[in-house]
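Notebook entry, cofactor series.
This is the third protein in the set we're modelling with a bound small molecule. For this one the ligand is zinc ion. I'm keeping the input format identical across the series so the outputs can be compared line by line later. Sequence and SMILES below, as received.
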Amino acid sequence: MRIITHACPACGTVVAANELESRRVMKCPGLHCEEVHRFDDLEDEEREHFLENKDQYRL
Ligand SMILES: [Zn+2]
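Returned structure with ligand:
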């Protein structure tokens, strides 16, 4: 299974696609980081892949 993640441009914290997808908008989990991440921050191709294989990411 392919791992899809988004790296915070401000602090480098890596957020998993399934977290982004379930919350849609989330504050960066990085310490003292105010960056906000959205599912839409992922590449189109990554979003598509994630949505097509969503079941595999629910483990
Ligand atoms: Zn961050």
